[in-house]
Design a protein that fits this description.
Layout: E1 9-12, E2 27-31, H1 36-39, H2 42-52, E3 56-60, H3 69-82, E4 86-91, H4 93-107, H5 113-116, E5 130-135, E6 147-152, E7 157-162, E8 170-173, H6 175-178, H7 183-202, H8 210-229, H9 233-253, H10 257-269, H11 273-302, H12 310-327, H13 334-337, H14 341-357, H15 370-382
Helix pairs in contact: 3-4, 7-8, 7-9, 7-11, 8-9, 10-11, 10-14, 11-12, 14-15
Bound molecules: nicotinamide-adenine-dinucleotide and fe (ii) ion.
Length: 388
């Protein structure tokens, strides 16, 4: 038996935050990140609509990029004393992911982080609150996914929580918020979306439901990411939708080892999530092509790349990603990113052991052990092609 789950409602288009005024309830906790949503006035828009709906509001702010377990537990405690019937999060993947995890501990104060970090082990939600996600970046698609990535800084590991219980009830896609993204954030998050769609195409639960979403997302990224990076608003509108389509695909099809590696190196080396994915993706395709070349060729064909065999088309897709990353200022290996070689070598075996255990490794199209990760990472550090 397979399953395909999405939020019940997705509202999209400029001005779509207005739907907040129709929610039924008496208290809403609003969760945001740093200052950008306040500074640009979007927090005021959200609170004004919620007040129009007759709700009392609690603000939980200051969620840091790559949120910590501590931030989650602190926010959950605040919710426990306020008793919201809605949790509304506006911000990047970090703020919304933290709010999702707060939701779990708000409804289940007795839960242990170690237990909920096990895939599909989150207890039933929606006994106290429902969840609205309003993304301000165009990449993670956390507004439609069953995931939340929380970092345990004591061990320097990102844990992807995974369960359809934390798929939001309502997603609101208003690209006007994403117009404010600076170019580098636009590039990183857009390449995260490209990685989601690419990994969803080859992941173990890829299906006839997820493939069309992933393919369309990749085509939209090809047609819009550079213009979006350069600030074109129509392209930003398209990227906001494209990343969501990619999210609908990967939330159900799952991901692969590109994400395992990004999760396990992001915190340790301080590489932004989308940037890590963009550096690793061409190497991951080279590694996976033994088992998934036809799927990469299908992507290449769909987005209009040329080639008369799966091999040539797969090569063309790798080259397309490299060219795109280069135009967006992303280095092609970890040495050029600026990771110190001695530091890289000293941490490599721990990173690889953790990557093998990452929740995304099991859904990769090719079995990848800690030893394999070490070989792959060595190529990624040096910028060597993977031909094994
Ligand atoms: N839940 C999922 O399905 C999923 C999927 C992929 C990644 N993630 C996680 O999401 C996090 C990354 O999220 P992200 O890439 O959205 O970045 P982010 O939320 O970490 O935000 C990065 C920075 O950009 C700022 N920012 C956000 N929106 C802005 C805007 N519109 N204008 C100006 N500044 C803005 C934030 O304040 C922050 O300083 C990582 O922790 C990653 O692991 C989650
Ligand atoms: Fe991602």
């Amino acid at each position: 038996m397979n399953r395909f789950t999405l939020p019940r409602d997705i509202y999209f288009g400029n001005g779509s935050m207005e739907v907040l005024k129709t929610l039924k309830g008496s208290r809403a906790s609003v969760v945001i990140g740093g200052s950008s949503m306040k500074r640009f006035g979007f927090l005021d828009t959200v609170t004004a609509y919620l007040e129009e709906a007759g709700m009392e509001i609690q603000l939980i702010d200051g969620v840091e990029p790559d949120p910590s377990v501590e931030t989650v537990l602190k926010g959950a405690k605040m919710m426990q004393s306020f008793n919201p019937d809605w949790i509304v999060s506006i911000g990047g993947g970090s703020a919304i992911d933290a709010a999702k995890a707060m939701w779990v501990f708000y409804e289940h104060p007795e839960a242990k982080f170690e237990d909920i970090a096990k895939p599909f082990n989150i207890p039933a939600l929606r006994n106290k609150a429902r969840f609205v996600a309003i993304p301000s970046t165009s990449g993670t698609a956390t507004e439609v996914t069953a995931f939340s990535v929380i970092t345990d800084y004591k061990v320097g590991i990102k844990y992807p929580l995974a369960d359809f219980e934390i798929t939001p009830d309502i997603a609101i896609l208003d690209a006007e918020i994403a117009y404010k993204m600076p170019p580098q954030l636009t590039a990183y998050t857009g390449l995260d979306a490209l990685t989601h769609a690419t990994e969803a195409m080859t992941a173990c639960l890829a299906s006839d439901f997820s493939d069309p979403l992933a393919l369309k997302a990749i085509k939209m990224v090809k047609e819009n990411l550079i213009a979006s990076y350069n600030g074109d608003e129509k392209a930003r509108d398209a990227m906001h939708i494209a990343q969501c389509l990619a999210g609908m695909a990967f939330s159900n099809a799952l991901l692969g080892i590109c994400h395992s590696m990004a999760h396990k190196t992001g915190a340790i080396f301080g590489i932004p999530h989308g940037c890590a994915n963009a550096i690793y993706l061409p190497y991951v395709i080279q590694w996976n092509r033994k088992n998934a070349e036809a799927k990469y060729a299908e992507i290449a064909r769909y987005i209009g790349l040329e080639g008369d065999s799966d091999k040539v088309l797969c090569d063309a897709y790798i080259q397309f990603i490299r060219d795109l990353s280069q135009q967006l200022g992303i280095p092609s290996n970890l040495r050029d990113y600026g990771i110190d070689e001695a530091e890289f070598r000293s941490k490599l075996s721990t990173i690889c052991e953790n990557a093998e255990k990452d929740a995304c490794t099991g859904s990769n199209p090719r079995v990848t052990t800690a030893v394999d990760f070490e070989n792959i990472f060595n190529c990624i550090y040096e910028g060597k092609e993977i031909d094994f």
